[in-house]
Amino acid sequence: MSIIEYTESKDEIILFMDYCNDAKYFEIMLEEKHKEIKDENELRMHVQDIFVGLKYLHDRNIIHADMKP
């Protein structure tokens, strides 16, 4: 994935990145690099970490416009 273009003002920076719609690539990366989480408490901790990260971004008026479940 690469940055195609970006714009910047005193209030924001916008990055335009190439579109990657290769679902097989995503599935392969998950299968090769991640283990299945079977423990509900462990999963809860990972999801909480993601939300803490998103809150950090949002508190600084940074939007991640491509979140996936």
Chain-wise SSE layout:
Blueprint: E1 3-8, E2 13-17, H1 23-33, H2 40-59
Antiparallel strand pairs: 1-2
Structure, briefly:
This protein is an alpha+beta fold.
Characterize the structure shown.
The chain has 69 residues and is an alpha+beta fold. The protein has one domain. It has two helices and two strands, in the order ββαα. It has helices at residues 23-33, 40-59; strands at 3-8, 13-17. It has a two-stranded antiparallel sheet. It is flat and about 45 Å long.
Helix/strand class: alpha+beta
Strand content: 15-25%
Q: Can you list the strand order of the major beta sheet? A: 1-2
What is the number of strand segments? 2
The end-to-end distance, rounded to whole angstroms, is 19 Å
The H-and-E topology, N to C, reads as: EEHH
Radius of gyration, in Å, reads 16 Å
Domain count, please report it: 1
The low-confidence parts are none
| Main β sheet profile | 2 strands, antiparallel
Helix content: 40-55%
Number of helical elements: 2
**Average pLDDT number:** 78
**What form results from the Cα inertia axes?**
flat
